[in-house]
């Protein structure tokens, strides 16, 4: 058996599997123009045949025209989403125009799939967002004037209000092709069918009569139903489907004592890692539900299990007193999957405005499982006479929780009465009453945790060769929790004399599993014995014997496959500390106590840039270097100024799609598909109010073909999109690319190359 163990160790570390992750659909080709007429239902849209693609698929006109704001809130939205611009499909970005009547407002809302970056074109706006329960529902506000820029972080409730005597206009970029919008008043009090009075009365700690009055408003839907379907569904802002950062090593155990602030946590040295970093006990113990809502949560997040860092998953145990409830709330960074261990729960979630705030509910009994999609408002209530218990898995190491009552009526400082009275269409006295309640924060931990229920299960994981194939093992008892990092080979063995059971949560809708014995020794057709013998460094006879043993011994050793994406927020905000000398992917985070509204703000985007250069264009950037609050939020904004006949030369953005709208002048724009698509040029002439999309990574350009100056605003789907100007990169690199290489590449004489290199290359 010792010899087999040796072979086991060698085999396990010789077999590797590469994992690539994706979260929202990412482009797998140059373009995937949405076929809006297709009856095939997918996540997003199926692609048009590339032969049928036209420039109009990337184009929209009329963005300079104001929308009708004659409604109760004095606000309207014009969308440039995938339904209006099919070319946005898979590109992860969109644009909206916001029109405000004097004193009109965009009521408190969230966006389940996007961060928002806004610039004011006309007027003065009072804007703000509310941090989550964990950060005391702090309200961050700012007054914005023409040319100012502000960011609304992913997943947070936010609003904009025109505080001037004249109409106001703003343009917002959003980090999704279809951001969605959840207007709080509509979703909580105007769902169809309505959320139970009992649930809302307990959640908001008020009499049912107050709830009845609020629900009777029906949130303007009867009066302005058409407007809200078209208008409010385009209110785009935070609450993104945010995926956790992917692991870049086997494990990155959180150093909870480090003073360095990053998105998530810095890693402990692997030498200091122990099995306890992946372990938590007492998950079988009930928590105290003696509070106003009769509910409590036990967390198994990264703060409790440091080994969860970068692994994109967590667990929570939910305890309900008889008739207790987990009030309406959202998780800005996670989907939740729940199973009932004891009792009977009435649960539900509310779809966004676009889906008519439909309420989807279910009564769950012991053993039932239910899913709450990321970003949607949801609740759970114990409708039985006895306590209830549930376990939930969440798709983030730190999902966050935003309890609606706390966030809207209990923010610090409070949201203005005027804003809330108009948003909820009630008298200010009702708002005063609601704000005066004592808001329960016992649900602030609601994020995650699942308890395993084994009698005695031994769980082990093996680190990669790079980390000396270290084996980390632990014996688990009832109520214990353990974590298996993504892709590492691991196994479970019941070491007791009685049957055992465990509950697992996995950070993928379809994790898959590779059983090593089956995959290596049981493939069909089989892998050559010669190949395996050399891989394991044994002779062929021994290989055959080992194969027979492995079928019995290694059957349970598995590796789960999951997907991941670029870094996403692991907390409400991670404002870049631009002065820190610590180098990470992006920037380390400022201490949240030092964060101000100024970290989400930039001014001067109404000022023209200097175009007196060889190409006659200039770009004013508003990325993470100008607005530190953009860190981890995946979006930025630029203003592009063009002199008459000026141009933004052919270039690419290695990390972003660009969506552009023309404010003044006439532009000729285009992008070039890749070699596989015959380097097809797709071009269009744009006028004031037109919108156009440049897919990520493709060479593109803009040229002012008019006799007057031209101006455009563009949103980009990265906090730091990067730019590669083709002429500069090819002919102005340092040190220069060899003449021989370029001469052959361009099929010209070397003298031509020397001439091109001698030019002074301009970065617009």
Give your account of this protein's structure.
There is one protein chain. Helix content is 16%, strand content 27%. The longest helix has 14 residues. Among the domains are: 176 residues, Jelly Rolls (Sandwich), CATH 2.60.120; 140 residues, Jelly Rolls, CATH 2.60.120. It has 14 helices and 39 strands. It has 764 residues and is an alpha+beta fold. The radius of gyration is 28 Å and the shape is globular. It has a six-stranded antiparallel β-sheet, with no helix packed on it. Pfam families: Cupin_1. One of its GO terms (molecular function) is manganese ion binding. It is found in: Secreted, Extracellular space, Apoplast.
In a few lines, what is going on in this structure?
With 764 residues, the protein is α+β, with helices and mostly antiparallel strands.
Q: What global shape is seen?
A: globular
User: Low-confidence runs (pLDDT<50, min 5 residues)?
Assistant: 1-24, 218-242, 438-471, 485-489, 512-539, 545-566
**In total, how many beta strands?**
39
Task: Find the CATH topology of the domain at 59-234.
Answer: Jelly Rolls
Going by helix content, strand content and strand pairing, the class is alpha+beta
